[in-house]
Amino acid sequence: MSAGAPEAHRGLAGVVADTTAVSVIDEATGVLLYRGYPVPELAASCSFEEVAYLIWYGELPTTEQLEAFTAAERSERDVPRDLTDALAKLPLTCDPMDLLRTAVSYLGALEPRPPTTRFRWPKRACVPRSSASRRWSTATSTITASPPP
């Protein structure tokens, strides 16, 4: 048994859950960076698709890469009717993040996979037609959709 009580952290302050190359907070400025680019600058000068490409592939796309990525991503944006029906049953007071989390979980349940299958980030090519790219694209449509009448 330990002589002292375990250290307790409020929230996740001071706790490293994992490391990633995708995002980091610049400690000197307090600015969030995606792949080394300040998010405020990306928001001001890049499209959603350009930033999505940056997150997936680690670099901003060329014109040709962006066209191929956008076409592939948009082809996956259909929202399944089962999902819209399920989301319509949530209360109108539902927090948007709860709705998004529910939508992504529901999409995952629609595509069961063996427990040994692990997602692998795509190679530097157009987005693969994987469950991850479908969820990404469908989540985009879910976020931007108007609520049902």
Count of domains: 2
Radius of gyration from CA coordinates:
19 Å
Task: Specify the biggest β-sheet.
Answer: 3 strands, antiparallel
**Quaternary structure:** single chain
Structural class call reads mainly alpha
Overall mean pLDDT: 79
In helices, the fraction of residues equals 40-55%
Low-confidence segments, ≥5 residues, pLDDT <50?
124-129
SSE blueprint and pairings:
Layout: E1 23-26, E2 31-34, E3 37-38, H1 39-45, H2 48-57, H3 63-75, H4 81-88, H5 96-110, H6 131-144
Antiparallel strand pairs: 1-2, 2-3
Helix pairs in contact: 5-6
Provide an overview of this structure.
With 149 residues, this protein is mostly helical. It has two domains: 23-74, no CATH class; 77-144, no CATH class. 45% of the residues lie in helices and 7% in strands. It contains six helices and three strands; from the N terminus they run E-E-E-H-H-H-H-H-H. Strands 1-2-3 form a three-stranded antiparallel β-sheet. Helix 5 (96-110) packs antiparallel against helix 6 (131-144). The longest helix has 15 residues, at 96-110. The chain is globular, with a radius of gyration of 19 Å. It starts with 22 loop residues before the first strand and ends in a 5-residue tail after the last helix.
